[in-house]
């Protein structure tokens, strides 16, 4: 582009239109041919960056130049999360309707911090959250108490801030947490985001109390009760229990029916993290994932994992929204307005850590309208079926052991060899490129995780992934280890 123009070189509307078509074409091509690419990148640290110029461009360039660098520099440096044979971590699935609505949201470019800064942004979001109360069979008292957060990590942080506010009768807002002796209860299996929230709030890790788990990794409610009693006797203040419905490592479910009454008895805030599993409750037969949620003071689940809504989108409900607003509202003069002062509107900036907020509800609305509840159920059921299919293949091969029956969309398994053999196996599977799996540990023993739920995953992709696992055994595990040596049994001992 010409140097020294008097006006900034904004993209005119017609150019935007035609380049926009190119960008959509680019995404469609990417998705369509994704199965032909290796799932995981084979790059050394620093190689992507080394391909970028050392200084920014002085004069503007054409947009297609960016698209070609996307192809040349970026794609080889990506782990392809939307690949139909991506089975790592938990899915973070995107879908056509979600991505189009995300683009629309970007085009609208609204800031929904207050109701009056875009009434529709707030009200569509309120309606979506109420729709989800219905869709997931959540307690009716959550109606009107829902908000979209970026992530489950923010959800637990906001919940903890509100619990602090409630427990201190408002004092922590002005004076901080000080030496109040607050205690936060969780388990070894609780997501690290809860510990991080303890750090961010200033409670520190010393406020965190790890409750025992049973053989399945679920929180032991009797141990929780005993620890709360002991802390009370020691003059400490039980503040919050973080319970998980579907832990990240291997999907254990903390028993809310037992934990809830303990929390009620002592006035302890119960936060329920169902980031991955909660959305499965769209299916009647999977309603159990949210059993006991009626005890929750706060509850969250992520459509950005298994519900076809691209990152980021976490749904948080609180039983008492007023407590949340009181905990987080700080009102500068420049945001005062008659609508807020009328008390008739919701200003979502008080429901989250940042001030500004995107119109995330648009992509949820788009996903719900495109798929309908039935379409979402069918997607979840496909993921469950794929997990069972893979588990059956593992079960039929006596070199492998399932750690547990496949639950929802996760299969946890290991080869009969040593931990080192299993590590080498995982490395070989992922290096080959056909598929991508991740790992975790239980009682110090390494295992492999196979998580289904990809938007474009079909049965044959599951079979192809299993074949890749079997090929990797031939190459990565010494022959002598192919026979069962009993290590897997030690896991349950
Ligand atoms: C994935 C996950 C999280 C973290 O999710 P973010 O939204 O990325 O913060 C928290 N808890 C559980 C149980 C998870 O599976």
TrEMBL record:
<dbReference type="InterPro" id="IPR010977">
    <property type="entry name" value="Aromatic_deC"/>
</dbReference>
<keyword id="KW-0663">Pyridoxal phosphate</keyword>
<keyword id="KW-0210">Decarboxylase</keyword>
<feature type="modified residue" description="N6-(pyridoxal phosphate)lysine">
    <location>
        <position position="305"/>
    </location>
</feature>
<dbReference type="InterPro" id="IPR015424">
    <property type="entry name" value="PyrdxlP-dep_Trfase"/>
</dbReference>
<protein>
    <submittedName>
        <fullName>PLP-dependent decarboxylase</fullName>
    </submittedName>
</protein>
<dbReference type="InterPro" id="IPR015422">
    <property type="entry name" value="PyrdxlP-dep_Trfase_small"/>
</dbReference>
<dbReference type="GO" id="GO:0004058">
    <property type="term" value="F:aromatic-L-amino-acid decarboxylase activity"/>
</dbReference>
<dbReference type="InterPro" id="IPR002129">
    <property type="entry name" value="PyrdxlP-dep_de-COase"/>
</dbReference>
<keyword id="KW-0456">Lyase</keyword>
<dbReference type="GO" id="GO:0005737">
    <property type="term" value="C:cytoplasm"/>
</dbReference>
<comment type="similarity">
    <text>Belongs to the group II decarboxylase family.</text>
</comment>
<dbReference type="GO" id="GO:0006520">
    <property type="term" value="P:amino acid metabolic process"/>
</dbReference>
<dbReference type="GO" id="GO:0019752">
    <property type="term" value="P:carboxylic acid metabolic process"/>
</dbReference>
<dbReference type="InterPro" id="IPR015421">
    <property type="entry name" value="PyrdxlP-dep_Trfase_major"/>
</dbReference>
<dbReference type="Pfam" id="PF00282">
    <property type="entry name" value="Pyridoxal_deC"/>
</dbReference>
<dbReference type="GO" id="GO:0030170">
    <property type="term" value="F:pyridoxal phosphate binding"/>
</dbReference>
